[in-house]
Design brief:
The longest helix is centred in the middle third of the chain and has 21 residues. The protein is elongated and about 85 Å long. By secondary structure, it is of the alpha/beta class. The protein has a six-stranded antiparallel barrel with strand order 11-12-17-16-15-18. It contains 15 helices and 19 strands. β9, α11 and β10 form a beta-alpha-beta unit.
Length: about 500
């Protein structure tokens, strides 16, 4: 399972020697108090580590480059308690490789009208100290998150906490490995892309591994291990009768368990954080992985079908961002529409491979023919999704840039039985409305593969794109087609 609680964000306060030791002592005390409050806040899921006040070019450079080298440090928060001349920050900011959040706050919430004097004013200069720092970050064209408000407020701490999750997701991509079993689905465009550029831009690598190598691992799984996993299946899901011991499809369940154990061993042994496969390349496998993929995603692995490594990586990082929160993140595909004019909706699924983290109730473990792949009937978990606020996100390669496209959605309960569709089913209403959302998605070149999320926000995805330095397009309740098209046209000029 994914755990980001031991990751660190460094809290770095800027000042200068001009004000003398007494002022700098107070700066340090106040900064320590803020960092401690953040570290103890239930709204911030990572460790906030106080760092000594930086007062010179040398101290700034040493602190920021140390952040680069510290493995557990996933980002930094900067705050200017006093005025901190920003030319001191140039060398350090140019060297900084970790995500940056600029906190614009001050230690005191209210102006002490009756006691405020020039000593107080010299000490509490965030109102213009942060503007000096902000100018330099903008001058250097450094991407960053800006959070404004009093540090003790829940609103500020929530925004910081949300950003630290995004920083953890970005950190998780650095050096990550994704396995691709087989190539891209033949002739499909949007799921393909430039893996070299992706590694350069995002920090993760994607390499193809022969299905035969995976099959060799699968075939080496012991009967005892399979027996134990089947017991776990029987304790976790509603099992159809044919899969129970003595049932006519029991062997299908045994093969499904063998595939899951083999896949997981391959991923663990290789240090992979996600994978993709394709039904067009299953040589040596008896069935297309269904329940195996579903359960591995639930454990935190990224996945997408048909060789779609970009979506597999996106699913993984969104799982990291949402880790520990109620709700889930899962590989998804827009499958079919309900075009009732009064209530048009989208039904999402993907053959066998939708993460049971989205299940509204206990899934059913079933086996049915698939119709593609040319293999034996695969075992899968069947369930309906939950109602609630959600988003759908897709990552595409546009040749000269990557584009992240996000649609704000509302999940809805499925009340119909769907007796002849034995797969996972998720239904949602796209915002602002069906026609606008679908038009904008198509104009934006949105993929049919996505990550559907119940706990990651649009703002977090925008922050992620900011850290990655890629384009982000958002479809939400405020979207109009005219403005959306204008944004696309403006972005074309910007990224060219």
């Amino acid at each position: 399972m994914i755990d980001i609680s031991q990751k660190e964000v460094w809290f770095i306060t800027g000042s200068q020697h001009l004000y003398g030791p007494e002022t700098l002592k107070q700066v340090a005390e106040n900064s320590t108090a803020i960092a401690k409050a953040f570290d103890e806040s239930a709204l911030i899921p990572v460790k906030i580590v106080f760092k000594p006040t930086v007062k010179s070019t040398e101290e700034i450079y040493e602190t920021l480059t140390a952040a680069n080298q510290e493995k557990n440090c996933i980002g930094i928060i900067t705050w200017m308690h006093t005025f901190s001349p920003a030319k001191m920050w140039i060398r350090g900011l140019m060297a900084l490789q970790k995500p940056l959040l600029h906190l614009h706050t001050q230690f005191n919430r209210d102006i002490p009208w009756d006691t405020m004097d020039m000593d107080f004013m010299n000490l509490n200069q965030s109102a213009h100290g942060d503007r000096e720092f902000g100018f330099m970050v903008s001058r250097l064209r450094k991407n960053r998150k800006v959070v404004v408000g009093h540090w003790a407020s829940d609103d500020v701490q929530t925004k910081i906490g949300d950003w630290t999750r995004v920083a953890a997701g970005w950190d998780d991509w650095q050096g990550a490995k994704f396995a691709r079993f087989g190539d891209n689905m033949r002739f499909v465009a949007v799921t393909d892309g430039d893996k070299v550029e992706a590694e350069t831009k995002f920090g993760f690598s994607v390499n193809t591994y022969p299905v035969g190598d995976l099959v060799e691992v699968i075939n080496g799984i012991t009967d005892d291990a399979i027996h134990n996993l089947i017991k776990e299946y029987e304790a976790s899901y509603n099992m159809v009768e044919s899969l129970l011991e003595g049932g006519k499809n029991r062997q299908s369940l045994i093969e499904a368990a063998r595939i899951e154990l083999g896949l997981e061993k391959f991923l663990v042994d290789g240090g992979f954080k996600g994978f993709s496969d394709t039904f067009e390349d299953l040589h040596g496998m008896k069935q297309l992985p269904g329940i195996a993929v579903q359960r591995l995603m639930q454990k935190g692995y990224g996945f997408a079908g048909e060789g779609d490594w970009k979506t597999a990586a996106l699913v993984r990082t969104m799982k990291v961002i949402g880790s520990g929160l109620e709700g889930g993140n899962a590989f998804m595909e827009d499958y079919t529409y309900h075009l009732d004019p009064a209530a048009p909706r989208i039904l999402g699924s993907h053959m066998l491979e939708v993460d049971p983290v989205l299940a509204a109730s206990k899934p059913s473990c079933e086996v049915h023919p698939l119709g593609i792949g040319g293999k034996e009937d695969p075992v899968r978990l069947v369930f309906n999704g939950r109602a609630g606020n959600s988003i759908n996100a897709a990552l595409m390669d546009f040749g000269n840039r990557f584009r992240l496209l996000v649609n704000k959605t509302v999940g809805e309960e499925i009340k119909e039985a769907l007796p002849k569709l034995p797969v996972a089913r998720i239904m949602w209403k796209p915002l602002p409305d069906f026609e606008t959302a679908c038009t904008a998605w198509i104009l934006g070149g949105g993929a049919h593969h996505t990550c559907y999320s119940e706990n990651v926000t649009v703002e977090q995805m925008e922050d992620f794109a900011e850290i990655a330095g890629i384009e982000a397009l958002v479809i939400d309740e405020d979207t109009t087609i005219r403005n959306f098209k204008n944004t696309i046209h403006t972005n074309e000029a910007y990224y060219r």
